[in-house]
Task: inverse folding
């Protein structure tokens, strides 16, 4: 495999920065891609995107088209700068002012091939420094000077076919996981919110006339043999252990969970087993609920675990339904915090252990399948990262 030539991106593409939206433009009418939507993705998850009212703000050329590639232009976390997303659907969408769009105007480079090229270490090195100076923000000049390898049309197709097949398998696993999570959520709501768990005759408890008693603390009826407790008396709730990037073993593979919506860095040791719920303790994401199906090192967060996996999955459903309430517990003007005591004080209706056991029979296997799929996706992503640069520089032959 021989690379024919290189071309500067500025010679074959146009660029456009995203728009800044005020509170007055919040609303419906147009999808909006923001920085959080770049998380570990090659393409956007369109159904999860927020919306904006574009009227009076956006012009015709501001909207995205199939084949566009958008980048994180500016962010407080410099590791995010330069991350890209490929627009693979014809949707009405705009992108944040912290992003920049590249739109190819030449057929010499396949847009999907270009998108994969932006994931290579070679591309990242070209946008991360200029003249030996580290770059904190991406701009049109920097992007315009990036050199793109020019292969034949057929070779570009074969390279993208290999990579897109890996992405397709990852996406299939993601869809399966989404369905399994939805099924668990539906069962949780049916059993623990509507109280229509199977009674002794296998019929929906409340709908079949099961006895209900009004509970003053919850201001609602609950089944007669259920109890109401503080969450701190029902679950194991603990504060994470302090660790920093300087004291952590960054060469390890255990994710360190701190403030934020994702892990912060790595460590070589875990302090919690798989299937642990965390609540971010501080910062802009204070109160964010996450669930880890792998061992973790819990740092700037609160951890919640039940006495068994079915218990923990029930607790996850309980907490997710109270996400907005937990967000509101954040206090502190300079650095908002959500403390373990805020979680411990939540009131929960607790069922007999037999119901938790039956719940587990329905949801534990699905949780294990999700874990398997996540692990497979990690391996597929590592394979893609390994093979990508070799495909681009000709070290791997494509038939």
Result:
């Amino acid at each position: 495999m021989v690379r024919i030539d290189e071309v500067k991106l500025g010679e074959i593409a146009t660029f456009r920065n995203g728009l800044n939206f005020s509170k007055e433009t919040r609303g419906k009418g147009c999808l909006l891609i923001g920085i959080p939507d770049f998380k570990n993705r090659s393409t956007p998850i369109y159904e999860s995107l927020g919306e904006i009212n574009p009227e009076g703000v956006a012009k015709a050329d501001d909207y995205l088209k199939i084949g566009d590639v958008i980048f994180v232009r500016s962010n407080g976390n410099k590791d995010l700068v330069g991350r890209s997303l490929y627009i693979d659907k014809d949707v009405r969408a705009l992108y944040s002012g912290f992003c920049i769009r590249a739109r190819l105007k030449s057929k010499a480079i396949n847009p999907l091939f270009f998108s994969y090229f932006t994931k290579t270490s070679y591309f990242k090195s070209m946008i991360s420094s200029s003249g030996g100076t580290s770059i904190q923000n991406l701009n049109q000049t920097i992007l315009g000077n990036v050199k793109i390898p020019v292969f034949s049309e057929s070779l570009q197709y074969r390279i993208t076919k290999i990579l897109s097949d890996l992405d397709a398998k990852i996406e299939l696993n993601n869809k399966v996981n989404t369905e399994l999570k939805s099924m668990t959520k539906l069962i949780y709501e049916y059993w623990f919110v509507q109280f229509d768990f199977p009674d002794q005759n296998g019929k929906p408890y409340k709908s079949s006339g099961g006895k209900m008693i009004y509970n003053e603390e919850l201001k609602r009826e609950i089944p007669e043999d259920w109890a109401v407790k503080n969450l701190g008396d029902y679950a194991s709730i603990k504060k994470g252990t302090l660790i920093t990037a300087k004291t952590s073993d960054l060469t390890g593979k255990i994710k360190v969970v701190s403030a934020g919506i994702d892990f912060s860095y790595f460590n070589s040791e875990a302090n919690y087993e798989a299937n642990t719920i965390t609540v971010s303790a501080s910062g802009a994401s204070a109160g964010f609920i996450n669930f880890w199906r792998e061992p973790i090192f819990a740092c700037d967060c609160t951890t919640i675990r039940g006495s068994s996996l079915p218990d923990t999955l029930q607790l996850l459903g309980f907490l997710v339904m109270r996400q907005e309430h937990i967000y509101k517990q954040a206090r502190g003007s300079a650095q908002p915090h959500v403390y373990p005591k805020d979680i411990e004080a939540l009131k929960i209706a607790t069922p007999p252990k037999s119901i938790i056991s039956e719940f587990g029979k329905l949801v534990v296997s699905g949780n294990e399948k999700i874990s398997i799929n996540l692990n497979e996706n990690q391996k597929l992503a590592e394979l893609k990262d390994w093979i990508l640069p070799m495909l681009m520089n000709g070290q791997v032959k494509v038939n």
User: Anything to note?
Assistant: Confidence is low (pLDDT under 50) at residues 130-134. The radius of gyration is 25 Å. The first helix runs from residue 9 to 12. The domain at 175-376 is CATH 3.90.220.20 (Adenine-n6-DNA-methyltransferase TaqI; Chain A, domain 2).
